[in-house]
User: Fold this.
Amino acid sequence: MNVHFTVNGEEREAAVQGPESLLFVLRERLGLLGAKDACEQGECGSCTVIVDGDLVCSCLVMAADAEGTEVLTVEGLATEDELHPVQQAFVEHGAVQCGFCTPGFVVATAHLLEHQPAPTEPEIREALSGNICRCTGYGALLRAVQSMGGASP
Amino acid sequence: MDIDRPRSLDETLAAAGEYPDATLLAGGTDVMVEVNFRTRQVRRVISLRGVADLSEWNGTRIGAGVTYRRMELGPIPALAQLARTVGSPQIRSVGTLGGNLGTASPAGDTHPFLAACDASIEVRSRDGGTRILSWSEFLTGPKLNALKPGEVITAVVLPEHLPARQEFGKVGVRSAMVISTVSACVMRDEEGRTTVALGAVGPTVLRAARAEEMMSAESHPSAEALAEFSRLVSDEVRPITDHRSTEAYRRHASGVLARRLLERCLAA
Assistant:
């Protein structure tokens, strides 16, 4: 079966086998390796993408059910020349250790700031509660997000 | 694998009638875990993504497709409280009320709320029309419900009047992404009639009937009455020991949690 959807603004078609996940199709069929494959049960947030405006774990989206949707992955945030402001803030605050969780945190943060440009610390912690950093680099992550408070994402 | 993508409730019921063994897919947050871990065979899917009818929320009738995110922002206090404890923003943006009933986990976080207010579940099918089941008729055991082949959960119907004083709480190892060790919902109306429902401490959500009867007779509960309420709740739950907790801890935590929620109701 083939699914047709918009990925990072481009119309895409991908072959899909059985009930496999959107995460699998993004990585293995479309070569978009930003969303990471870790827990496969929605626990870790490393595969976070935005589907039709909703922040989701792409491992929990059935690819066949993504027909007609608009998907935004971490690859769709930066332009050719410029990092997305969230990525820039992560760089400036050293909010990256091993980097595995980073794409998920970046997407979740971009989604948060789009809806809440000046979140409080508890709001940041709650908005990012579905993303796990097993290097435990939460302090720098929090400071990076706080540095953007009030700035338009 | 085949997938149907109905655009209306009628089309959904037609597809479910034709393929009664199909997997109904709403948010996918339970189904896809089983798919990823290869514990579920999926040969045909009926996607509910495009069925706007299921996402309608009119007062006390809440469509099965309403997400936790919408419950979190909605007007019903305990429903908003419980929705906020479910998973993470990623889970709440797609997970649905109907999905929580379809999965019918003993730890389903909407269940204590539905039981405490005596909600009904509306199910429909192409051939059987509409059935309205009480929460206790619908939830029949661990991961078991009363859906017949071809039936679709369409809505939850709440009583017209809900007590203003209603509280939900749960116990788990962290605030996010946690499956309840114990969950509870307490409601108390103007006349003092008190209901208390507990999840994850029995094969399905359960009501602590003796604790309810005792507390409903107390217009201004004393410290002794609160302690007795707590003791009765702990006595009435039917927990097991599993990988998540022990029978003894769950029994103790049930009483403590129910009393705290009642105290919040009394303070409100």
